[in-house]
Amino acid sequence: MAKNLVIVESPAKAKTIQGYLGKDFAVIATVGHIIDLPTSKLGVDIENGYEMVYTTIKGKDKVIESIKKAVKATSGTVYLAPDPDREGEAIAWQVAQICKFPAKSEKARRAVFHEITKEAIGAAIQNTRDVDASLVEAQQARRILDRLVGYPLSMLLWKKIQFGLSAGRVQSAALRLIVEREDEIKAFVPTPYMTFTSKYKGTDVVFTLVDAKGSMVKAVPEQGNELKKLLDLQGKHEVIEHKTKTVTSSPPPPLVTSTMQQAANQTYGFTAKMTMKFAQELYQGVNIKEKGGLIGLISYMRTDSVNMSEQAIAAIRDLIEKKYGKEYLHDTARRYKTKSAVAQEAHEAIRPTHVELLPSMVREYLTPQQYKLYALIWRRAVATQMKPQILEEENVKTVPVQSEARTFVDKEKWAFETVAQREVFAGYRLLKHAEEKEIKPLPVVSKGDQLTVSEIKAENLMTTPRSRFNDATLVKEMEKLGIGRPSTYASIIGTLIARNYALREMKFLIPTEIGILVCNFLKKHFVKIVDYAFTAQMEKELDEIANATLTKKKMLEAFYPDFAKDIEEKNKSIVKEELTSLGETDKECRKCGTKMHLKIGPWGQYYVCPNEKCKNKEPFVDMTKYFVPEEVDKGGYILKKGRFGVFWAHPDYPEVKKTLPMLLKEVCPDCDAHLVERKGKTGRPFIGCSAYPNCKYIKSRFFKKGDAAKSGEASTAKSPAETTSIKKVVSKKVIKKSASKAKTKRTK
């Protein structure tokens, strides 16, 4: 048996670290937290100073036993080495608790490293410390605070709105951002405006009409139409300004969690969750032949610090000088300072652990997604030590020669302008030159020259609202407001989507009706929970606990009593009926013709007829993604909801047991039949071909509710709609075609 024991939280991480340590070390994993608050009750002893009532996490009994057994068999030191953050510190503390190590233990020591390399692991083993009680207390305070807010608030939502809803301390503030942006878009009233561009003979360069500050003129229609008439009369413009200046562009700081998520989303379309998954894989270890096996390629990916170690800076500078030449190396080592007041400067920015491993050198060992993210991290880190890019910027302004037009633009201080930049020295941009766009050169002109107009273009446009949030812009806004921390950005967005409070459509985050309802409920009754400043203040106080300047008990005592009183009062005063109605719709009741109302029920939204004599109910279905077969209209089929989902039912159903499936607009790539949503044997939804069993195409195995681009498991389970022959919606010709394809594939 090995003399020493290293305990980490991830099996993948354990495997990589084991490769660096000799036979005197055994490395095992906790597979995350091992104890936590119970799932079925509050789990916080409020009367006893807000202490956590821990319970073993389901399925972790064997893990705990194996840890105890390994500790007992260890004659040397037990190194507690989970991640270098509050969650990692808490896991280390949990292991110490189950193994009954004292707070100041010589046998159990905390080992901390920010990258998984042989050097970093060795240094951590040599420089251990006690488990940091303040970091543990901060993690516990966050967990307790989330439970004290989320548990009673979710129970209230279940009771007053709909079963299964949840409200969290941070997710609710993030939901408010998405909902309020949607409200802003809906309330936006477009206004018309006009823009002007010009072109001149001998060049394809486009000049844009700008104001005195250099911003594009958005003329009101009256102004624009008057200028258009004047410009149509005239054929020459005079150059009133021709300036040339040298500008420099310095490299941005190295990546931190938020900027990595933003850059990966903007460059490659990765969601925050995807980015963190790929980063975790790069951090924990990839099998690289040149390095003799598993190696962590990047430093720890949950950080808000832009610091880099002196060793890392030296390695990057050495690489630049050798690979690109001394002329590209910045004169002095460039160091960045984190602007955030709560950033943990002991952490480092996200950087490559072995900068000598160029992206091209490791590409064959990485998945395409891992490679893209590694290249992004590598470029940003290396760029920090390169010289700025030097550009020669040329600016040309023209105005009409014709007197009336000239008088008009002079009065408004407008001019036609174009700006072009010519690269004098690439500097750090050398790393990205393959992605640069070609810039057209400006015509050779001098001040006072007259140019002959070849085109004047006046465009009538309408103002548009700000875009909806995507992963990148939402993370940026949360960071700006102080909502959440590097370790939580991705999970916050994931929770909102998993709870069906928001949908991701064309990469944008759109609130669902239930998400809007929950947000408005919280804004009306629990304004603090969705208040940005309050949420940010809570994060600051958690940081203060981590820095030992505030106690968990004091923080919770200042918040919880008033909140508990609010919960109690709202339980009595809120009327469910007022919350569950979403108002009148344009849909007419098929029985009496009355405009139906949309309501929220225990299992989602539905239509109800307000006519007291009718009270007809119909399921609510977003029909934008569905194809409606001709037979539905001809036969007067109606939407029904059963245990397998929504389906088309004969108007005399259930007396006439005739149904049709809900076909998606998307068609099968194998046989051209429409795809259909189904459920597997375990109840998990998936998307498959409606021509099943003749065509067994399945789109994906990761389908989630509201996301037609994902699917679950294949199964022969049938929906009620499949009692009708599929031949009614899929031709025999299509079925034969798919069967033939399947036969061909089997032959191959």
Automatic annotation (TrEMBL):
Species: Candidatus Dojkabacteria bacterium CG_4_10_14_0_2_um_filter_Dojkabacteria_WS6_41_15
Residue ranges annotated for the Topo IA-type catalytic domain, each copy included: 132-568
Any GO BP annotation: DNA topological change
Protein name, as recorded: DNA topoisomerase 1
Phylogenetic placement of the source organism: Bacteria, Candidatus Dojkabacteria
Source organism, top-level taxon: Bacteria
Cellular component GO terms held in the UniProt record: chromosome
Function, in words: Releases the supercoiling and torsional tension of DNA, which is introduced during the DNA replication and transcription, by transiently cleaving and rejoining one strand of the DNA duplex. Introduces a single-strand break via transesterification at a target site in duplex DNA. The scissile phosphodiester is attacked by the catalytic tyrosine of the enzyme, resulting in the formation of a DNA-(5'-phosphotyrosyl)-enzyme intermediate and the expulsion of a 3'-OH DNA strand. The free DNA strand then undergoes passage around the unbroken strand, thus removing DNA supercoils.
Gene Ontology molecular function: any one: DNA topoisomerase type I (single strand cut, ATP-independent) activity
Alphabetical list of InterPro entries matching this protein: Topo_IA, Topo_IA_2, Topo_IA_cen, Topo_IA_cen_sub1, Topo_IA_cen_sub2, Topo_IA_cen_sub3, Topo_IA_core_domain, Topo_IA_DNA-bd_dom
Site, Interaction with DNA: residue positions: 33, 142-143, 146, 151, 158, 302, 499
Alphabetical list of Pfam families matching this protein: Topoisom_bac, Toprim, Zn_ribbon_Top1
Family: Belongs to the type IA topoisomerase family.
Gene3D superfamilies the UniProt entry points to: 3.40.50.140, Bacterial Topoisomerase I, domain 1, Topoisomerase I, domain 2, Topoisomerase I, domain 3, Topoisomerase I, domain 4
Catalytic site positions: 300 (o-(5'-phospho-dna)-tyrosine intermediate)
SUBUNIT field: Monomer.
Toprim domain location: 3-116
Region feature (Interaction with DNA): 166-171
Gene assigned in the entry: topA
Documented EC number(s): 5.6.2.1
Catalytic activity: ATP-independent breakage of single-stranded DNA, followed by passage and rejoining
UniProtKB keywords: DNA-binding, Isomerase, Magnesium, Metal-binding, Topoisomerase, Zinc, Zinc-finger
